[in-house]
Amino acid sequence: MKLKNHMPVKSQPVPEVWEHSKGADQYEKSHRLPSAGLHKKILVVDDEVYYMELLKMTLEDTGRFEVALVSDGTRVLEVARDFEPDLILLDIVMPGVDGGDIAAQLRLDRKLGKVPVIFVTALVSASESTQGESVVRRGGRCMLSKPVHSKVLIETIDAAIRGRL
């Protein structure tokens, strides 16, 4: 059987992505198919590996997001520069460098300074919310209380990416 109008497919370079592997502080570069701009890149920074994996699954299951994970606060800038996220989900309380310090470093970085940051933390509760379930605004920052409902998470990410937070 012959194929008509068969054109050879030109291969495209596959971007490298930092991805969590066997341990909380081990990452490896993996290759993913190009998303052709359809997926938004989300970087999740948290010292709770299980919680990060849960967020990753939740976001990637929508088919709209590509997610990279970082559990070591000292590696966030390096991984973020390589991954080039559209948004960063950042825990506040972490060993070593805390989320507030990381956010300050991100704001000072020429490449990452405009990337929206949403804090995901147990320091606030849904009862403190002023904009709806689990969403809290403090000092010009958006915070989501842990655990966050997937619908609230995705709506908040969408709003932040569109510049509406």
Summed up, what is this model?
By secondary structure, the protein is of the alpha/beta class.
Write up what this structure looks like.
This protein has a domain of 111 residues: Response regulator (Rossmann fold, 3-Layer(aba) Sandwich), CATH 3.40.50.2300. The protein is globular, with a radius of gyration of 17 Å. The N and C termini lie far apart (56 Å). The protein contains 4 helices and 8 strands, in the order E-E-E-H-E-H-E-H-E-E-E-H. A 6-stranded mixed β-sheet has the order 4-3-5-6-8-7, with helices on both faces. Strands 1-2 form a two-stranded antiparallel sheet. It has 165 residues and is of the alpha/beta class.
Notable traits:
single chain, alpha/beta, Rossmann fold, 4 helices, 24% strand
What secondary-structure arrangement, pairings included, does this model have?
Elements: E1 16-20, E2 27-31, E3 40-45, H1 49-60, E4 65-70, H2 76-83, E5 87-90, H3 99-108, E6 117-121, E7 135-138, E8 141-145, H4 150-161
Parallel strand pairs: 3-4, 3-5, 5-6, 6-8
Antiparallel strand pairs: 1-2, 7-8
DSSP strand (E) fraction? Answer: 15-25%
Share in helix: 25-40%
Please mark out the parts with pLDDT under 50 across 5 or more consecutive residues, or reply none: 1-36, 129-133
Average pLDDT reading: 77
What's the main sheet like?
Answer: 6 strands, mixed
Q: Radius of gyration, Cα only, in angstroms?
A: 17 Å
CATH architecture of one domain: 3-Layer(aba) Sandwich
Total beta strands: 8
CATH class of one domain: Alpha Beta
Query: Alpha-carbon distance between the termini?
Result: 56 Å
- The CATH topology assignment of one domain is Rossmann fold
Return the string of H and E elements: EEEHEHEHEEEH
CATH superfamily of one domain, by name, is: Response regulator
What is the overall silhouette?
Answer: globular
Strand order of the largest sheet: 4-3-5-6-8-7
Task: Supply the number of helical segments.
Answer: 4
